[in-house]
Each structure stands twice: as structure tokens, then as C-alpha cells.
Design a protein that fits this description.
The N and C termini lie far apart (46 Å). Helix 1 packs across helix 10, helix 4 packs across helix 5 and helix 11 packs antiparallel against helix 12. The chain is an alpha+beta fold and 384 residues long. The strands form three sheets. Strands 9, 10, 11, 12, 13, 14, 15, 16 and 17 form a nine-stranded antiparallel beta sheet that branches. A four-stranded mixed beta sheet has the order 3-2-1-4, with helices on both faces. The chain is 30% helix and 26% strand. The protein has three domains: 79 residues, Rossmann fold (3-Layer(aba) Sandwich); 66 residues, Dna Ligase, domain 1, CATH 3.30.1490.20; 202 residues, 2-Layer Sandwich (D-amino Acid Aminotransferase, Chain A, domain 1), CATH 3.30.470. It catalyses: 5-amino-1-(5-phospho-beta-D-ribosyl)imidazole + hydrogencarbonate + ATP = 5-carboxyamino-1-(5-phospho-D-ribosyl)imidazole + ADP + phosphate + 2 H(+). Homodimer. It holds the Pfam family PurK_C.
Length: 384
């Protein structure tokens, strides 16, 4: 079986590696050069994109910002999963908000802005503490601005005045005092089978994910059921096929959808070592019409996992592999500020044991590039 992935980054690479074990051949489209490449070596492969589409049993994406002309070509083949409409929802916050409203799924109060003169009305309607997001091309904290008090509004309007907001509107959200950030990763297959992973608890720094822990601490059946109900309503409402990531804010007992990602997701990388079937394998299974694999934690209900992102550095020590249950995944990229260079998965039999392993891991990593790890490891180590 054969899959063509649009995008040639680390997510396509990890799909290739999991697909190889199943005898699934995965190739990638470098959307910057419009060429077909090997997902690991990045070597250019013979043939055009059109020929690769004919070759493939299924087409999919590793990120949502694929040029629309390529998406249209893929959609016309009838093989693109998830479909173009779902991919575009992940690429455009306005479409995303419209979907959430149509499906009556709770999310942050918001307004759409196409002119900076509308911002004072946003303050009037939503309050003076706002998160302003570009509706397209924003990720990892880019394309976002904050308003902390009304006095800052004139300066913010001036800062945004040069943007073409008719072309790329802003989504202005009320800044909420949420308790924590969660995500639910799951998959829906061609035949409608749905499988979800345990809720993950996510720790961000400067707009980027640094640490995920799964299952999330202090979870309960009611919280998990609410998250799963949201996921099911989304995938059925979109007739979605593949892995979908739903990022959530927890406010007390309420869950609000923050963002959707129509693909395998950073907060699901822990599944490589911690789950019976990784998100990458399940995505391939879903788009090819195969039965989905089990999503529970290896080691049973008490087992826990963490994923630690390696961002903007390559100064980790390979001696960290001496820690039992620690797995390194390196992407083979050149170092760049805020660039995701790789990640570390850690598995343990309890939160306390996980915290102790993360404390040991901290000894091999600089606090400059891993600022969240010391406090998070201490928090987990204290859970009884």
C-alpha cells in the first residue's frame, strides 16, 4: 500500500518510519519546490506530483498550510484524506470558528476583525484583555498579539495598521483565565471507526509546546467523556478521516476548544513509546481503510508518558539514553531559533516515577532551552 504526504518535514518522516514496519510505502511532496521526495533523506524522487498521485492509494497532509493549488489537485483525485475542506478549516481560524459555531461546540468568545477600527468594539464586547490571532499562517506563537489593558489599544492599532485584514482577517478572543491546556488526539477511519488516546496535558513557553504528559494529571471520567464527545462531534460533523488533534482549555469543569489540527500533532508524539499504536501508524491505517490500532497506554491504566520538545538547540547529551524508558527522536535539521529539532519520549509506571525520570533527564539538558522541565518534573514527582 502506498501513501503520498503533502509536506516533507518531521511528521512525514515519522509516518514513513511507522509505515515501513507495516509494508506501507510513504513518499512526500516538498511543497516549496513542488517535487516528490523521500521523507527521511529528502532526496528527490523520479516523477511528477501527478504521477505520484496516480501511484498512491491515499493522499494526506503533514501540515495544514499546503498551497491551495496543490490541495485542489489532490482533492480532484478523490484520494485526499482528510479532505480539502477539513484541511482548510485547520489552516484558517475564521473557518475553524464557523465550524465550531455550526456544531455548537464551546470555544473562546471572539469577534472577527477586518479593519483595525473594529478593535475598540472588541474591547467593548469582550473586555480589555484580548488575544489577537492572524486567521492564517500563525503557529507556535507567531501571528499573535496581546492586549492587556485598554490603554495599549492605540499602540496595537498602529502595529496592526499595515496588515491587509480584508485578505487575512483577525480573530480576536477574550483572554481567559483557564486552569490548564489539554489536547485530545484521536483517529477516525474510512468506515467510521473512532479511537481516541488518553487526554494529554500540555505546557507551553513563549507560545510553543515544551512538554506533554499523558494521561493528563487530575483527570476523571466526566472530563474525559466531555473531551471525547467534542472529538466525536467534530469528526462526524466534518466526515473526517485520519488523525485529528483537538486543543482544549480547561476552565473548571468546562472544556473550550482552542484550536484544531487536521493531522498528526506534536502533543501526540508520546504515543510512539507510550501507546500500543502510535498516532502515525493510526493515521496511515485510517486513510488506507485499515482497522485502527489500540490507543491505550502500554503498561496499563497506571502507566504514564511524557514528551519533551527539543527547540532551537542541539546541545543535549546522548548519555540521556542511559535513563530507562527514555527515547530520543531527532529530525536532522539545522539549528534555528525556535525550530523544533527533535523530541524526547519518556515512559514510566506512575507520575512520581515519571517526575523522577524527568529530573534525571534535566541533568543532561540546559535550562536555557528546557525552561519548563525542572518545575514540571518536580510537580510530577510530588504526585502520590
Amino acid at each position: 500500500m502506498q501513501v503520498l504526504v503533502y509536506g516533507a518535514g518531521q511528521l512525514a518522516q515519522m509516518m514513513y518510519l511507522d509505515g515501513a514496519a507495516l509494508g506501507i510505502d510513504v513518499r512526500a511532496v516538498d511543497v516549496n519546490s513542488n517535487t516528490v521526495v523521500h521523507p527521511v533523506s529528502k532526496a528527490r524522487l523520479d516523477g511528477t506530483i501527478a504521477q505520484a498521485i496516480d501511484w498512491a492509494d491515499a493522499l494526506t497532509v503533514e501540515f495544514e498550510h499546503v498551497p491551495e493549488d496543490l490541495l485542489e489537485q489532490a482533492e480532484a483525485s478523490g484520494k485526499l484524506l482528510p479532505g480539502m475542506a477539513s484541511v482548510l478549516i485547520g489552516a484558517d481560524r475564521v473557518r475553524e470558528k464557523q465550524l465550531l459555531s455550526r456544531l455548537d461546540i464551546p470555544n473562546c468568545p471572539y469577534q472577527i476583525v477586518t479593519n483595525v477600527d473594529q478593535l475598540p468594539d472588541c474591547v467593548q464586547q469582550l473586555g480589555e484583555r484580548l488575544i489577537i490571532k492572524a486567521s492564517r499562517d500563525g503557529y507556535d506563537g507567531y501571528g499573535q498579539w496581546r492586549l492587556n489593558k485598554a490603554e495599549e489599544l492605540p499602540q496595537l492599532q498602529q502595529q496592526l495598521a499595515g496588515l491587509d485584514l480584508e485578505k487575512v482577517p483577525l480573530v480576536v478572543e477574550k483572554m481567559l483565565n483557564f486552569d490548564r491546556e489539554l489536547s485530545l488526539i484521536g483517529a477516525r477511519s474510512r468506515n467510521g471507526e473512532v479511537m481516541v488516546y488518553p487526554l494529554a496535558e500540555n505546557l507551553h513557553h513563549q507560545g510553543q509546546l515544551h512538554v506533554s504528559v499523558a494521561p493528563a494529571t487530575a483527570s476523571n471520567e466526566a472530563l474525559t467523556a466531555r473531551a471525547q464527545e467534542i472529538f466525536t462531534r467534530l469528526v462526524e460533523g466534518m466526515d473526517y478521516v485520519g488523525v485529528l488533534a483537538v486543543e482544549l482549555f480547561q476552565c473548571g469543569e468546562t472544556l473550550l476548544v482552542n484550536e484544531l489540527a487536521p493531522r498528526v500533532h506534536n502533543s501526540g508524539h508520546w504515543t510512539q513509546a507510550g501507546a500500543h499504536t502510535s498516532q502515525f501508524e493510526n493515521h496511515l491505517r485510517a486513510v488506507l481503510g485499515l482497522s485502527l490500532g489500540a490507543t491505550g497506554n502500554i503498561g496499563g491504566d497506571a502507566a504514564v508518558s511524557a514528551m519533551v520538545n527539543i527547540i532551537g538547540c542541539d546541545d543535549h547529551q546522548l548519555a540521556l539514553l542511559s535513563i530507562p524508558g527514555v527515547h530520543l527522536n531527532w529530525y536532522g535539521k539545522s539549528v534555528r531559533h525556535k525550530r523544533k529539532m527533535g523530541h524526547i519520549n519518556v515512559t514510566a509506571e506512575s507520575y512520581q516515577a515519571l517526575g523522577n525520570k524527568l529530573q534525571r533527564l534535566s541533568g543532561y539538558l540546559s535550562t536555557t532551552h528546557f525552561p519548563c522541565l525542572p518545575d514540571e518534573s518536580q510537580r510530577l514527582a510530588n504526585i502520590r
